Amino acid sequence: MMSTPHRSAPGAPPARPRIPGAPVLSRASFGGMGAARPLSVLDAGAARLVTSGRIAIALALREMKVKPGDTVLVPAYHSPSMIPPVLACGAEPRFYRIRPDTSVDLDDVAARLDPSVRVLMVTHYFGFPQALATLRAFCDAHGLLLLEDCAHGFFGEYQGAPFGAWGDYAIASSMKFFPIYEGGCLVSARHPLSGVKLRSPGAGFEAKVALTTLENSFAYGRLPLVAALLKLPLAGKDRLWRALKARRAPGSAAPALAPGSSDSSYDFDPRWLDKRSSLFSRLMLRLASSRRIGAARRRHYAALQAALAGLPGIRPLFPALPDGVYPWVFPLLADEPARLARLCAALGQAGVPYVRFGETLWPGVDASVCAVSADLSQRLVALPCHQALTARELDWMLGELRAASTL
Fold first, then answer.
1. Are residues 21 and 95 in the same domain?
2. Are residues 67 and 24 in the same domain?
């Protein structure tokens, strides 16, 4: 699910280069047919393309017929956006422990079972797989439905099968991996999803997604020729929008043209449940090169891992990058919260985007529920490794990381 990239402090001098925290539209996501094509959740089974991963969670729970009085087991280390879909169907989220390597603590899961538990939700943190064969066997033995949260792993495989193929249902967040403004998917290898009917949110949504995707690209210096050609039309669009806002009654708000998930909000709006992803985003999923995206993410991850070697007080969360893993971001651990605070302050001041996944946990989830989750929330930061990073941006970011680690 979404986590907000941290940026430079207000009033800080502009950094150069300015680095996108997520993929933006550029040539980096297209072409490149040499590498092997990575498996994706869309290879796992029937799929429906929606506007976000949290909407896909809500649809999965609806398909599972989760109802008031039911319990959904959710990892204690999580994005807060994972919880409102559970509450929206009247179910209780019950949090289970993870181990320091982010694997599911099945002993703790077993201790939390009772007749109300219907679903076990598992997260492939940062794109690294859980022990899916073991989890599938556990769910089958206990009569549970397995929901794979592939928000961090649109691409990836486990024992030769794509992420999403092991669960009764799976969800993913395509906007973490593709240069798009919105996008998620619901997938099932076991059910046809024939009951999931979707429709377009309308022309305003379609236009906003396409224009915002382009504007995000232009803001980071990509597609300069296209930016020059569209400079006047986009300026006219901005003037028209300001005029329309000025005509609204004081205190009134325009209806949202896109879900809050597109702007890193944790909100859950059920009005988006029957809405499909935009035509623009669906087209990008068809045209973008999964080969190039996957190869670049692995290459950038390896460069970050090499740069960390020998740096004081920080280390990668995962000691190696296995085959079949295509990371969302590069997670690293500081040896203590104070060092993480210094590191993040320095990175933010320099203009390096970063993500603090799990920095905010659901109210009541603390060290008494899961000490590992509480610890990760205070010591983990993640840097971008997406395909849109240029060689210059990556080198500059590595230099800033080395400098920040000495503070």
1. no
2. no
- 127: tokens are 């794109």
Sequential pLDDT tens for the chain (407 residues) = 444 455 444 444 444 568 999 999 999 999 876 678 999 999 999 999 999 999 999 999 999 999 999 999 999 999 999 999 999 999 999 999 999 999 999 999 999 999 999 999 999 999 999 999 999 999 999 999 999 999 999 999 999 999 999 999 999 999 999 999 999 999 999 999 999 999 999 998 999 999 999 999 999 999 999 999 998 878 877 776 676 566 666 655 556 677 776 666 778 899 999 999 999 999 999 999 999 999 999 999 999 999 888 899 999 999 999 999 999 999 999 999 999 999 999 999 999 999 999 999 999 999 999 999 999 999 999 999 999 999 999 999 999 999 998 87
Answer left, alpha or beta for residue 277, where phi above 0 means left and psi between -120 and 50 means alpha: beta
CA separation (Å) from 273 to 11, 53, 153, 362?
39, 11, 22, 23
Question: Cα–Cα distance between 115 and 303 in angstroms, integer?
Answer: 48
CATH number, position 108: 3.40.640.10
Return the sign of the alpha-carbon dihedral for residues 138, 101, 119, 71.
positive
Domain that holds residue 350: 17-32+289-405
As for how many domains the chain has, the answer is 2
Look at phi and psi of residue 84 and say left if phi exceeds 0, alpha if psi is from -120 to 50, else beta.
alpha
| pTM, to two decimals | 0.91
CA torsion 337→341→344→348, rounded to 10°?
160
| CB proximity list for 348: less than 8 A, separation 6 or greater | 6, 7, 8, 9, 12, 354
Q: Is 278 helix (H, G, I), strand (E, B) or coil?
A: coil
Going by C-alpha positions, the residue among 113, 53, 62 that lies closest to residue 91 is: 62
